[in-house]
Every structure is written in structure tokens, then in C-alpha cells.
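PROTOCOL LOG
Step 1. Enter all chains and additional molecules of the complex.
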Amino acid sequence: MPTFNALPGFRDFYPADCAVLNAICARWRDTARRFNFLEWSAPALEPLELFTEKSGEEIVRQLFNFEDKGGRQVTLRPEMTPSLARMVGARANAMRRPVKWFAIGENYRYEKQQRGRLRAFYQYNADLLGDPSPAADAEIIALCAESLRAFGLTAADFRIRLSDRTLWFLFLGSLGVPETAAAAVLGVVDKIERLAPADLLAAAAAALAGTALDPAKILEAVRQFTALGSLEEMRAFFANRSASDDGAKIAARLADWQTLLDALDALGLRDFVTPDLTIVRGLAYYTGFVFEAFERAGDGRALAGGGRYDALVKKLGGPEMPATGFGMGDVTLRNLLEEKGLLPAAAAAADFHAIALAPECRPALLADAARLRAAGAAVEYALKDGKFGKLIQAAEQSGARTILIYGPDELARGEVRLHDTATRAERCVPRASLTPETTAA
Amino acid sequence: MPTFNALPGFRDFYPADCAVLNAICARWRDTARRFNFLEWSAPALEPLELFTEKSGEEIVRQLFNFEDKGGRQVTLRPEMTPSLARMVGARANAMRRPVKWFAIGENYRYEKQQRGRLRAFYQYNADLLGDPSPAADAEIIALCAESLRAFGLTAADFRIRLSDRTLWFLFLGSLGVPETAAAAVLGVVDKIERLAPADLLAAAAAALAGTALDPAKILEAVRQFTALGSLEEMRAFFANRSASDDGAKIAARLADWQTLLDALDALGLRDFVTPDLTIVRGLAYYTGFVFEAFERAGDGRALAGGGRYDALVKKLGGPEMPATGFGMGDVTLRNLLEEKGLLPAAAAAADFHAIALAPECRPALLADAARLRAAGAAVEYALKDGKFGKLIQAAEQSGARTILIYGPDELARGEVRLHDTATRAERCVPRASLTPETTAA
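Step 2. Run joint prediction.
Step 3. Record the structure below.
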């Protein structure tokens, strides 16, 4: 006889787990609603090219992709942003801007098998499209922070590290790094904590191949830049450097930083956001302010990440459409909430559990169950008649608040007996007076 | 430049559509909660064998199946019942019975392209496992009916046709059809309305090949059987026939019918359920009472279908576990609700839309927006400062109930101006007094 299990890296959600997932999604939805973001959704299966167009052919290694029975190259989505860009692009001209959308969906990545790495995970995405200003960045970062605070997490639990690929490109330009090499250098910066010194130098040399620049010197300048921990330090850093052609651009960009930080301050989020230029976000499609939310204790795991991606909608066939957004997964968040004792409570048991002490009592039980359910109560009942002791024991174990006992004597009087599962208090009431609020107390 | 679309048969959910889908799912969830069913979920990607084990190799034609990068034969699920059977089977011994579970998930079938045929659709499944009695069938059928009534549909809109594969097998046995041929005959019955007379006869002959039975006579008896429209007619039908060895079994089964119909009567659902033996449910795994919900007008489309499948859990590796359940898709239901004007209303616009008349007013706007959001209000705000006329026009078009106007004069007094988008009434209130309930009226 075969025994079946979920595929490796995939999760079964038994009711207790499903209740937690639903509670997490409900909290995300409520926070997005308060920010007036509208929910959207898209197919979990999409044309493969949608993702290779965005991320390059190398992404295919990480995909659950295949050829469908119609000869189409398709894939389970690894993320929802390309679908978003496709959908917004298709109707951009009819949409009031800014477009503020969020989605919750399952994504799929063929990750190497290791502890804690899943191949299917839920992700909450929020995106604001159609506005290029730091005010839009502030709104998205605020939503990200508030979506974590909604679970009771505080500034002691997580921090949003804020960086800026625009400022990075201006900085690299000021070092003489040509535009064509800048993205590759940022790829090296992304690995700066993970590579051994010799490997780092080799990677920098590879990124700078074809230039006359000294990789060691560039790395040294990069380290000074990534050490800047505040807007004041960033201002001082650029003020101390010889003026470059990009001086005005750098000044304007630092003014954008001021606008963004002021807005986050006004939104009450100063304690949650730290400038941190080590964050560059590996993906080449990010174009401006980028950020990641990390837990502050333990392993410092990433809880969410995002940033500005002003070119993607156009790249996928739509019009010019500046955009910023973030994604937040369910797995790390759930682990953190569990550690902090902040997991939303699972759904409650039924309000009523009804039992019939004789077959002739069952029609009354069923009629009242139907009426209470129609009025909004959650009603369970024993499918079998039987001995009182066994029925009442099962009813008490069910966790229901109140047991409804249908016996011949009570029914003869048009009544039902109520039994409180906590206190075992009992009383009889006329059946007609039963409402979802009725208790035995 | 590439233009991307969703795959054929797949749907994009723009916010208005997503709101309808969410409202449908919310109604399903609430109904299941009132019946005390617990939500579960499972991966959308499963081992291919889970489905071929249940339904045979021929199902593969209809699947989005492929080999993953680890060499596993996998498929997008066409339905959730095998995953349910797998999960319940794995933990059956630790579960209190009956197990009452529901799920809402997207399923995938590689259907031939035709109007109204989708390749991805949402389905609501509810299952009751661990109880073989007609009381359990009644509970599942009641949940199916109430899940449709929850949208405002009445007995004028839909009907549940109730049939019974157990009674069918007893009837076919009384005709002399051997057990080995009975399932094939039911396959013919399933097509009785769709096949031309000659094709039907040929199909019956094929199903009865190897027996000495006359296909035409069997078809004639089948037609008499399927014409029975009530339990009374079923009783009379069997009473008029010569007694067979299965007479006692048939009598017991008709008593089960009585129990089931009495329970549905007590649950207030007599008007919604019609005995109809033409329903046999094509899938061989059904074992007892089966049913389908149909719309009464128009094309009479199927809204839901289900029945008892007592052998599946064991077949997929679990213990003996009687089970009954149903599935209800979103597509037909949504079309019907649309035609009847019963589609749940889409989400409302924001409660507040805030505008700042000068840059120095923005911090106050942001602080109040954050405070109102924290208190539960949905708050939108203009990302740009600008001319009053343009800002107020956009704010009114947003559909928000109340516009919050942050001007220098009001702020100097510690106030904000409220503007009612419906009446254009205005008044100023102290900023500190703003709550989610504040209105301009």
C-alpha cells in the first residue's frame, strides 16, 4: 500500500497551522486596508518568459518550470512582482495614480534542500506605482513597518535598514567606476560579509575588469561608504570629498533622504528605520531607495525586503511607471512570532455542542442547530444518539462553551437543558428563546 | 518589447475582481465556521502518483504534470480530496472523530479550450470523515445547501439532487448485473442524457459484455429506476418487484434514505433537496449517497457536487475511514450570483483622504494619518502638496467618506478642516480629537 507525503520543502497545513496562517494573513490584510491598499491576485502559473525577461536566464535553475500540454514554457511563480507589473502595465492608462495594491500568495522556488529552506511559502506583497517621490517610498516603508508592528512586534524586535541604489551609483561614479561596471560592483558589495578577503578582492577585480581602477582601493572606499550610519555622516562624507561633476546630483539625492526620513519621523517610525548602506539588494532591477527588515536578536533573519524598481513595468511591456514595493514571507515571521509568544490565537471552538438522548429528540436538536447557525453561532452536534455519560464527555472535550441537551423530559416541556462546560452549571430554557448569546450561567 | 498575458484559461484578479473572490471565500468560511468545520490547506503541487492512485492513469491527460529538478513526477493538483485523504490518513489515530474539515484552494486542470472552461479555479471543499451514518451525509448536504443560501440564493434558485450509489448497486444486482460490471454500467448511466440512442445501446452492450444480459432490457429497467422521484416511489418500485436475495439490504438502505431525508427536513432543507437517481457521479470512488447542486433556471449548471467515498483514505495509505464531502467552484457560483444581483459588495473606499496645502503642513498630516490608521481607520493621503482645487478634486474622486484638509491657518490653531465628500459640508476640529468615527457632518 502506498504512503504519500507532501513533496520535500512543501507544507501540509493541518487546522491548527492553517488557523495561524489565516491569522497572519488577516493581520496583513487589515494593515494594508488601513493604508488603503487594494488586494489583487494573479495565477500561480505564468509564462516562463515573464520571469526570464525580468531576472535573466539564470533564474530558471531555481524554478518549477515545465512545458505544458500545449507546448507552452510555463513556471510556478517564484514571486508576484512580474505579474503585478504585467497587470498594471496592461491597464495603466485607465488607472488613477498612485496605484496602491497588495497581494498574498504562495510562491515556489526550487531551493537546495536545507534546514528551514522551503520550496513553497506564502508572501505578502505591497506595491505603490505611479509616483517617483520619496513620499511614496515613505508610504511603502511605513506599511512594511506597520505590517510587522500589527503583530505586537516593537523596535526591540526588528529594524528596517534603509539604503539607496541611486546614491550608490552616484558614489561609484564619483570613484570613477563606469556605469557599465557599477551593477557588478554592487553584486560584490552584496556579498561583502560572506566572502573571504581574497575571494572578495578577486570578485572586485572581476567586476572592475576592463577599467584602470585598483580593486583594493575601490573596496577600501566602499568600506568607508558602508560604514556611514546616518544622514549626517553621509553629508559629511560627501562634503569632505573633492567636488565631482555629480555634486549637484548628490546634494539633491541627500535632500531626498531628508524628505524620506522626515516623513518616516512624522509617521512615528523613527525608531524603526536605520540608514545602512550595506544593503544593496542583490537583484539588478532595483533603482532607488531599498530596504530590508531584520529581526534584532538571534540570527538577525530578514523578515521583509523591498525597494524602488522604476524600470520594470516598462520592461515588461507597459508604459513608464515608477514603482516601489516590498515582500514579506510567512516563514521567518511565524518563527519570530512563535519565539516572542506573539502568534495570533487559533480559532475558538464551537459556541454550542448539542446532544440528543433519544432518537425522537433528534429533529428538535437539528432544527435548533439550524436556527442557531443561521443566527451566526458555531454549532456542533453528536451524530449519534447514545448514553448520556459518553455523549456529555465528548461534548465537554470538544471545547464548546455550552452543551445543549435534548432529552425527552425537557422536550415535553418545550425546553432544552444548557450545560456550561467550564462550571458544569445547568439550567433549562424554552427552545424558542435560544439565541447565539444564550449561556448556561 | 514583449507583451505578457495570463496563460489561456487562467485569470488575473484586478482589485474589483479580487474583492468579489474574497467576499465569496469569506461567505464560504463563515458558513463552514457556523457548522464547526475547521480549515486546512495543502500544497498546490503534489506527487503525481497521489492522483493516479485515486483516479487511474487516464487522469494524467487533464493534468499540469511534469518532472521537477529532482527527478520527481509532480503535478499541480486537479482537486484537493487526495491531499485530504493523505493528511487525515497520516494522523487518523490521533484525531477526534468525526473529522470536519474544509478548505479553499486553487485547482488546475488542463481542460480543452472552450468558452467558460477555465484551467485554474478556486474550489471550496468540505468533508466529514470518521462516521458512516446518514446523519453525517445530512450534515454535509446541509452545509452544501447553507453555503449557497448564505449568498441569498433560495429554493427558487438551486436544488440539490440526491442519489445513492449503494442503492444503485443493489438495484443492478437485482437485475443480475454482476458486481464486476456494475461500475461500468453506472458510467453509461452517467452519460444517459448525452448519448444518442444507438450510442447508448452500444455503450450498454460494452459495459455488459461477458454477461448474458440484454442491454436493451437493462436500459429499460434503468430508465424506470431513474424516473423515481421520491422515497415513496422508490419503496413502491422495490415492493412491486419480485423479492431478491438483497431484499433485506434494500429495505435497510431505504431506511437510511428515510433517516437522511428526515434529518434534512428537521434542518429546514426539505425544499432544497430532491431525490434524483439520474445522478451517479462519474468518478468510481464514490460509494454511497451522492449529490449535486444545480441552478434551477437557465442552463441548469452544476454549482457543487459530492458524496460518500468510504474507501479512499485506506486506498491512499490510511486506516479504514468512512468519509463524505463536497466541492463547490467559484466560477459557476459567481456567474449565478451576478445574474441574480447577489454578488457581495466590493470593499469600500477609504474612510479618510488627507491633503496638505503646503509642505510645512505635511508632518501634521502624516502624524494624524498614522494615528487614525493605528486606531483602525483606512486613511489615504495625497503624496504631493499642490493646488487646493486639484487636490480636493482627486480626494473627492477617491470615494473616501471624509477629506482631511491640512492648511497653515487651521494648523496654527491646532485644527484640521473636515470636508464631507457627499454633502461638501465642512467644519474644523482640534487635531487631537480626530478618531476613526469623526465626520464632517
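Step 4. Note key features.
Chain A has two domains: 15-340, 352-433.
The CA atoms of residues 192 and 200 of chain A lie 7 Å apart.
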